[in-house]
What we know:
- The chain is of the alpha/beta class.
- Helix content is 27%, strand content 27%.
- The chain has six helices and nine strands, in the order H-H-E-E-H-E-H-E-H-E-E-H-E-E-E.
Amino acid sequence: MSTATPATNITDRYEFNRLAMVDLLRSKYRILDEHVLKVMARLPRHRFVPEAIESQAYQDNALPIAGGQTISQPYIVARMTELLELKGDEKVLEIGAGTGYQTAILSSLANRVYSIERLPNLAAEAESRLVAMGFQNVTIKAGDGTQGWADRAPFDAILVAASGPSIPMPLVSQLRVGGKLVVPVGGAMNSQDLILVTRTPDGYTQTNCGPCAFVPLIGEHGWK
């Protein structure tokens, strides 16, 4: 199981807002995975956004962070995590660490998380933040996430927090058989579909899980 318990038991002045956020995820968006909801009820999302907008951390929308990137809407974080069906013993690859919020959630639900962030400054800051919060099962590096992390493969689950024009095939190839990849895909920059890919012995299957909107996935197997 995850060793990332120190950061998930914090009581603070935003606790009421955080619990209200989770109630919305359960009642409005029908998020059913109680493990995901419990982690999000404890994890201090305001510590992953710029200090100037920390009071907005639990609102039902994405928020801007450094480098022209965003921290995803709580609903989409919960939905993507739920689709991976994590049980606690998985090795997970995340593409797009951002400030580390999604990384922290994955860390709290899986055994080991590897994360790739395209922007070196964001990668360094996310790693420092997670270490300071007590997470011990996360490794973050800067690089082209569309190529995956071949020397750490195969992965039980892969989550991509940016949208490309198509499913990045290197990521599919780095899934174990039965593993799941959740990735936003679409030709329009402001409107994509959330795709769930499941690796099979002969290739993979894919399921469209509905519309979404993400920043572009930049890289060799994404947007140039």
